[in-house]
Amino acid sequence: MAKRILVPLDALERSEAVLPLVADLARGAGSTVRLLHVVPFARTRLTDTGRVLVYAHHLEQRRESEGLDRLRDVERLLDGVAVERRVRFGDAVTEILREADAFDADVIALSARRRPWWRRAALRVTSRVRAKSPVPVLILAEGGAR
Asked: What is the Cα 55 distance to its own chain's centre?
C-alpha cells in the first residue's frame, strides 16, 4: 500500500495526466501526495559589457515562487487528499530521486508521452528515473506518437 506518493510535474500540462489516477490511489489508501517541480539552476545574466542584468538567486526565488503557484493550482485535482508541495533546483532525475529519498516515498508517479521511433534513443526523464529508482515507479503513458 502506497502511503507516500511522489508526483514530479514539469511545466507542461500533460504531466498532470497522472493526477486523477494518483488521487484515486491516495484516497483509497489514505496517502499523502507530494507534488514536486524541479527547476534547473539559474545563472546570473550579464550584458555584453559584463554588467549584471539579473542575479541568479533572484531568478531562483522567482522560479521557486512560480513553481509553488503552479503546484497550488494543480492541487485542486487532488481534492480530498493530503498534499505537500516542493520545488527543487538542479538536474531533474537527480532531484526527483533525492526528493523520493527525503520524502521516504513508497512510489513515484509520472506521466509520459509516447515519442516517435526516431526520438526514443534519447533517454527521457521518466526512463532514467525508472532505471535508477529504488522504489516502484508508476508511469502513465498517454497519447500517440507525434
From this structure: 25
